[in-house]
Design brief:
The structure is a homodimer of 339-residue chains. By secondary structure, the first copy, chain A, is α/β, with parallel strands linked by helices. Chain A folds into 3 domains: 39 residues, Orthogonal Bundle (434 Repressor (Amino-terminal Domain)), CATH 1.10.260.40; 133 residues, Rossmann fold, CATH 3.40.50.2300; 131 residues, Response regulator (Rossmann fold). Chain A is 39% helix and 18% strand. A 6-stranded parallel sheet of chain A has the order 3-2-4-5-6-12, sandwiched between helices. In chain A, helix 10 links the parallel strand 9 and strand 10. In chain A, helix 1 crosses helix 2. Chains A and B meet through helix 2, strand 1, helix 4, strand 3 and helix 5 of A and helix 2, strand 1, helix 4, strand 3 and helix 9 of B. Strand 1 of chain A pairs antiparallel with strand 1 of chain B, so a sheet runs across the interface.
Chain lengths: 339, 339
């Protein structure tokens, strides 16, 4: 018994029967009644997923993205979506706020959606084995790794840049241009995540150059909200703090910082150089173009999906891939002019 | 028979058994062999979704997003993700390029993923009944409606702004500030979509003000790529075209236009006013802040999910909701100074 039999029985088209079954309103009441009558009489069970129980093998891969304010993650999600789909899986996307816990979110999602595996975007770096017991499917940390936790490296996969070293590189570029009073804009110096590592890189670069760290030059925003970065940099400027360059730990924070500097009458880069890490398309359109260390976002997302599907399909083991940034020379860094 | 029985039988922890089942490599070969032996002997079938066939009712809602270059859509996806999840459904996100056909993509997705319904983000406005036969689940057009097609309004739902009227409003604001030479930056004046409608609004506003339309002032980018908008506005400036204001049909195109104007030595708004439609957070951080008509993105996404779940649950009929923008007065529009 199929929808065709019902159509033939009633002398109407298959699409009319389909419309009745799916409650589309563009069917006359008389035809609707006739079709419903036939469905009852012939004991037809519409075989579409909206009504029937289906027997299926899950194809779901969870993507748990933490930090909804970060446009860098939107870019990764776009590539993950394409790669997961192209490999015959289904992406189940769950975006959670920065304050939420991604492991709990993933464990819940795993049970509810029968996930085969999970890709974490932008999580903590301090997972413990105990926490991870909740999660019984393989997972890949995309854009970070478990630097501060006690997980065995053979218990999870990761694709990341070396955040600390990249931040060091960015600061060194400023120092090479003569800057020694360098501010930093970051979410949180103790977030057990990217902020903490990039802040460590900033401190380490200063130390290597014999520059004392000045806490007054650290703008802590709490999260990746651009408005908080804007307000923070305005306050820094209003305090009369002396600095000639600024590292923002993400492009979006840098865009807000450039706006704050400009609104307060400082020219970028003449009065203040700005550098960041990420490489958003959007930051090619700031005035001046943002100088930034670009993460290989496309490759990172592709590699994450490759790793996870290999684990799911039993053809791979847990691996850790470290990638390099490439410098985009924008116009936001200049050699320090004053003596 | 559960994983606990296997653990007790072998005298190992539950997590060790779990690691063996999930092929985590951090288990000694001897223990691995022992656990696998017990699994065989006790005929244990691991009950996780990676291995077993599961009987389940689909909870999948498809979100088909066309135009991956548009950051406005990322914002909507974030809200859709939250709303769909909170109502107990699963978002299956599929992002397709601007050139791809969203109906075909959705029909395929419907079959593959057993969708209960579909939300389209950023599609064409010219669907025909024939095309829509492929899709047998209810759908909602989010951010647009079927202006150019022949669908009965009772066959689908939509949440949109009145694109034509909003573009008219934007141009009128420029005219009210004394501008009569107004350029336009758009993807395509005949895209059967938002570009076409907003372009019609631009033309209609000029006409109403008795201003002749000058095709030389239309920058057509082909899609929403910011680089194309940047290049297009640079070419327009290099051609010596005379204009004192510019409407970009989206914020991201406006951000690129402001960059082009500034790089070519034109001050915004002193030498050229810029207005747009969308209301991205990012465009609050351009220099100057972009003046734009903000779409109620959060509300649009929420309403779309509300409509679709009501249809799925049989408590709603197809509806069409028109929403209004609100003007964000940035600093990118100024009264025309010259005589």
């Amino acid at each position: 018994m199929t929808i065709k039999d019902i159509a033939a029985y009633c002398g109407v088209s298959v699409s009319t029967v389909s419309r009745v079954i799916n409650d589309h309103p563009d069917v006359s009441p008389a035809v609707r009644e006739q079709v419903n009558e036939a469905i009852r009489k012939l004991h037809f069970v519409p075989n579409n997923s909206a009504r029937s129980l289906v027997v299926s093998r899950s194809t779901a891969i969870g993507v748990v993205s933490r930090g909804v304010d970060n446009p860098f993650l939107s870019l990764l999600i776009r590539v993950l979506s394409r790669e997961i789909h192209d490999r015959g899986y289904t992406m189940v996307l769950h975006q959670i706020p920065t304050q939420a816990d991604e492991i709990q979110a993933a464990a819940l999602l795993q049970r509810e959606k029968k996930l085969l595996g999970v890709i974490f975007l932008g999580g903590r770096f301090n997972y413990t084995e105990e926490e991870l017991r909740q999660l019984t499917v393989p997972f890949v940390c995309c854009t970070y790794t478990n630097t501060f936790g006690n997980l065995s490296s053979s218990a999870y996969s990761s694709v990341s840049i070396h955040d600390e070293r990249e931040a060091e590189k960015a600061v060194r570029l400023l120092v090479d241009n003569g800057h020694r009073r360098i501010a930093v804009v970051l979410d949180d110096p103790a977030d057990n995540s990217i902020g903490q590592l990039r802040f460590q890189g900033y401190r380490r670069a200063l130390e290597a150059e014999g520059i004392d760290y000045d806490p007054a030059l650290a703008v802590v925003t709490g999260d990746y909200a651009m408005s908080a970065a804007y307000d923070g940099v305005c306050r820094l400027l209003d305090s009369g703090a002396d600095f000639t360059a600024l590292l923002a730990i993400s492009d979006s924070l840098a865009i807000a910082a450039i706006k704050a500097l400009t609104d307060r009458g400082r020219r970028v880069p003449e009065d203040c150089s700005v550098i960041a890490i990420d490489g958003l398309e959007m930051s090619s359109f700031t005035v001046p173009t943002l100088t930034t260390l670009c993460q290989p976002a496309e490759e990172m997302a592709e590699e994450s999906v490759r790793m996870l599907t290999a684990l799911i399909e039993g053809t791979g083991v847990h691996r850790h891939k470290l990638m390099e940034t490439t410098l985009r020379r924008g116009g936001s860094v200049a050699r320090l002019a004053r003596a």
